[in-house]
Amino acid sequence: MNIKVLGSGCMNCKTLYRRTEEALNELHLEATITKVEAYQDIAAYGIMKTPGLVIDEKVVVAGFVPPVEKLKEILLAHRSPQ
Amino acid sequence: MKLVEKYPLGSVVVLLPLWIALYSVLQELADALVLSTGLPQGERLTEAVRFFVYEVPKVLLLLTLVVFVVGIVRSYFSPERTRAMLGGKSLFVGNVLASLLGIVTPFCSCSAVPLFIGFVETGIPLGVTFSFLIAAPMINEIAVVLLLGLFGWQTALLYVGTGLIIAIAAGFVIGKLKVERFVEDWVYQIHSNNAGMQEAVPAFRDRIQSGYSAVSDIVGKVWPYLLVGIGVGAAIHGYVPENFMAGLMGKSAWWSVPVAVLIGVPLYSNAAGIIPIVQALLAKGASLGTALAFMMSVIGLSLPETIILRKVLKLRLIFIFVGVVAVGIILVGYLFNLIY
């Protein structure tokens, strides 16, 4: 699974990154998380609110920081087939 | 909080009457509290304490209710929908609509850049985009609540009305100035291949839920500013002599409006910190136009936001943007000093 956290480094983006790590840990899922901080790259995903969460190039969260429990649901729903 | 999450509708039915009951006995509660401290009546310190003890819970209560309602209203709007509504509108109509939508669309200055790109990319004129970017931070629920609580509804309405006029006019002027070439070139090269996110329409209980999360987000962030702001305001109320501000920020001092804006633009505070102080200054003889201009320049034009916008705007356009808005605020300041 390839996960990207979109955001220019604001508070919310850091929180989303931390919670995503936490959710992955609790689910024992393997994934690479990268931060996308350049505005050019963020804009290419077509979101107008940060932070954003992208799983395998698909935008799944934009504009808010879901709680860890909600993130777990999202991660499970978009888990790439093993 | 867990219960609220489980029964969003039911919790409103319980919490709303509680809110009303608390709000209606606030004055007596505050008076009783001040009396119980044994502070001598009529002293400066007592007056400052009384102001603080009454205004802090009052504004917090108002803020909670309004932020909750606004949180629900905002769940019906998103930048994507706003962008779709603005598409293909003529210049002036676009400016009016963008300013109005700026009030209700969820916006945080950290998202100013992606929003700007998203608007420009779909061909929304720059002037219309600027109307949105001016109205969104300037007319926010925190400012409205504080004006409502500390000044009354007339001033709150005045602030919203003049804020709208500034956003419409400034966006219109910027649109007429043909500043497209002062946007960073890379912005025009972006073509997002992704349609962003298709959001499911939330159920009403989810909307109430977003009202609650708005309260915990915004009230949770703003209360320290509020305490400091009302604290300073209380000190001014108690200790600064009457009419002290008349010479500095009064009508007779013609230079006070531009100076207030010059000080206000680089000063960064949110509405919660600045409005209680302005209210106290007003009570000490500052004139309404000057006070209004000061508030608008602090809240509407902020250094951090212009630094963020510098990523997409060349320096010239930053200066044009700040200049046009500042001139608008100064005109409003003079206008109100003239009328009142």
Structure, described:
The complex is a heterodimer of chains A (82) and B (340). With 82 residues, chain A is α+β, with helices and mostly antiparallel strands. Chain A has one domain: Glutaredoxin (3-Layer(aba) Sandwich). Chain A has helices at 11-27, 39-43, 68-77, and strands spanning 2-6, 32-36, 52-55, 58-62. Chain A has a four-stranded mixed sheet. In chain A, strand 1 (2-6), helix 1 (11-27) and strand 2 (32-36) form a beta-alpha-beta unit. In chain A, helix 1 packs across helix 3. The longest helix of chain A is centred in the first third of the chain and has 17 residues, at 11-27. In chain A, 38% of the residues are buried. The mean pLDDT of chain A is 87. Chain B is mainly alpha-helical. Chain B has a domain at 1-76. Chain B has helices at 2-6, 8-24, 26-36, 44-74, 79-86, 91-104, 112-121, 126-138, 141-150, 153-176, 185-189, 204-239, 246-249, 256-264, 271-283, 288-300, 303-309, 315-339. The longest helix of chain B has 36 residues, at 204-239. At the A-B interface, helix 2 and strand 4 of A face helix 5 and helix 7 of B.
Output the number of helix runs of chain A.
3
What is the CATH level 1 assignment of chain A?
Alpha Beta
From the helix content, strand content and strand pairing of chain A, which structural class follows? alpha+beta
Strand content of chain B: under 5%
Biggest sheet layout of chain B:
none
Whole-number tally of structural domains of chain A: 1
Give me the strand/helix succession of chain A: EHEHEEH
Under CATH, the topology of chain A can be stated as: Glutaredoxin
Radius of gyration of chain B: 22 Å
Radius of gyration of chain A using CA atoms only = 12 Å
Helical residues, percent of chain A = 25-40%
Largest sheet of chain A: 4 strands, mixed
Kindly report the greatest chain-chain contact and the residue count on each side. Answer: A-B, 22 and 25 residues
Mean pLDDT of chain B: 87
Low-pLDDT runs of chain B: none
Arithmetic mean of pLDDT of chain A: 87
Q: What structural class do you assign from the helix and strand content of chain B?
A: mainly alpha
